[in-house]
Design a protein that fits this description.
Length: 153
C-alpha cells in the first residue's frame, strides 16, 4: 500500500511539473524596456551586440545547441517574424561557442531567443519555440518604442 501511495505521489508531481513547463514553454517575456517605453538603460545586452554585430536596428538572437531538435522549429518562427519586418535580423549562436554570454543572460535551455536592439537594449526573451504572434507583437512594440526614443533625441 505504501508503494502505491509513493507511486501516485510521484505521478502527480510529474504531471504538475509537466503542466508548468508546458505553460512556460515558448512564452514571450518582454522586459521592462518594452513595458515602460525605454525605462531600462541601453547597454544591458551590450555584450550580445558585441558578439553578433547587428546590421539592423533589432536582432533576434537564437541560442542553439547541436543536439537541439526544437531549434530548427524556433528558427523557422524567427525567420517568419524577421521576414515581416525589413529592419529585423536573425542571428544564431551555438551555446558551446558563447558559454560566457549564455551564463550572463541565464540561458538554461536551447533554444532561447533574445530580442536585442542595436544599442544593446534587451527587449525580451523566449525559452523554447516562440509563439509567432506574441513574438511579432513584441517586435512591433520594440520597433515602435525605439523609433519614439530616436525621434525625441
Amino acid at each position: 500500500m505504501d508503494r502505491l501511495l509513493v507511486l501516485v505521489a510521484v505521478v502527480a508531481l510529474a504531471t504538475v511539473l509537466a503542466a508548468a513547463r508546458t505553460a512556460w514553454d515558448g512564452r514571450v517575456r518582454p522586459t521592462r524596456a518594452t513595458a515602460s517605453s525605454g525605462a531600462r538603460p541601453p547597454g544591458e545586452a551590450a555584450d550580445v551586440v558585441a558578439v553578433v554585430q547587428p546590421t539592423t536596428p533589432l536582432v533576434l538572437v537564437e541560442l542553439t545547441a547541436p543536439s537541439c531538435a526544437a531549434c530548427a522549429t524556433a528558427r523557422a518562427v524567427l525567420d517568419e517574424v524577421a521576414t515581416e519586418h525589413a529592419d529585423v535580423s536573425v542571428v544564431a549562436l551555438d551555446v558551446a561557442d558563447a558559454v560566457d554570454l549564455a551564463r550572463r543572460h541565464r540561458v538554461l535551455r536551447a533554444p532561447t531567443t533574445l530580442v536585442v536592439g542595436a544599442d544593446g537594449t534587451l527587449w525580451g526573451r523566449v525559452s523554447g519555440v516562440p509563439d509567432a504572434t506574441a513574438l511579432a507583437e513584441l517586435v512591433a512594440r520594440a520597433r515602435g518604442t525605439a523609433s519614439q526614443v530616436a525621434q525625441r533625441a
